[in-house]
Specification:
Distance between the termini: 48 Å
Mean pLDDT: 85
Strand content: under 5%
Helix content: over 70%
Low-confidence stretches: none
Largest sheet: none
Number of helices: 11
Order of helices and strands: HHHHHHHHHHH
Number of strands: 0
């Protein structure tokens, strides 16, 4: 028989990982201990009965033709908000990604990174509430809110992709006399473009859901219809709006998945 192989000694374990895991465990335990979680009330007979009565009010959904037409128009408005907001975010994210990737020096990189952190740290609902002061109620404020938040997310992702791209192709073009802009478009951008497209499609899926929620604060679309009918306790009409939301999200998810598959083949 062959002699057993001498395996190298196991690497030394760092205590930082164990300390981080312990800190997370303590945080979770403290969260359960400090929050007034009323599990018994949630699963009580009264809670189950009232929940059943509330859900029964949604059936059957409103299927009158005028209301279905109104819901379809709101669905298209939500889809347009998400698409236009994502398109504006891609343009803004690309413009911010170049200095954010350090292509204009370290001071510009630090300043742009702070700007991207601010943009993506503010949720879409907060952006919509702020922008409604300037743009008024309606889908325009919702579109700008989606664009502002998503530009911060995509700008950071695009900048990281540009920083992680292999520098040798661009350096080779520069060495052979190509201009900085031409070297970027012919060497670095083709490397990162599939990844950027994947990020964009993923954020579009998220913006569909966010656009449906932004209507709660008056930004138009399906969310505004849902808030209106729920406030009047018109549960059957609200059920139709919720079904439209689910169908819209499912269709966009399927279209995004098919597009990503086509781009990666």
């Amino acid at each position: 028989m062959d002699a057993p192989l001498n395996m190298p000694a196991a690497p030394a374990r760092s205590w930082s990982g164990w300390l981080m895991a312990l800190a997370l465990a303590v945080l979770v335990a403290a969260s359960f201990a400090t929050l007034p979680l009323k599990w018994s009330a949630l699963f009580s007979a009264d809670a189950l009965r009232s929940s059943s009565e509330f859900l029964a009010g949604f059936a059957p959904p409103e299927l009158a033709v005028p209301f279905l037409i109104k819901t379809a128009n709101a669905t298209l408005e939500t889809l347009a908000m998400s698409a236009l907001g994502t398109l504006l975010a891609v343009a803004g994210g690309l413009l911010l990604a170049l200095p954010g990737a350090g292509r204009f020096g370290r001071p510009a990189r630090a300043a742009v990174r702070v700007m991207l952190n601010v943009l993506r740290s503010v949720p879409e609902l907060v952006w919509a509430s702020i922008l409604m002061i300037a743009a008024g109620l309606g889908p325009f404020a919702g579109t700008l809110a989606l664009a502002a938040h998503t530009a911060g997310v995509l700008g950071r992702l695009f900048a990281d992709a540009l920083e992680n791209a292999a520098p040798l192709p661009e350096q080779s073009l520069r060495t052979n006399g190509a201009s900085p802009m031409a070297a970027f478009f012919y060497a670095t951008l083709p490397q990162t473009l599939p990844q950027m497209l994947s990020y964009t499609l993923y954020r579009w899926e998220n913006n569909i859901r966010a656009a449906a929620i932004l209507g709660v604060v008056g930004a138009g679309g399906l969310g505004q219809m849902l808030k209106y009918h729920l406030s009047l306790f018109q549960m059957q009409a609200a059920a139709t709006v919720i079904i439209a939301m689910l169908l819209l999200v499912a269709l966009v998810d399927a279209a995004s998945f098919a597009t990503r598959r086509a781009l990666t083949r």
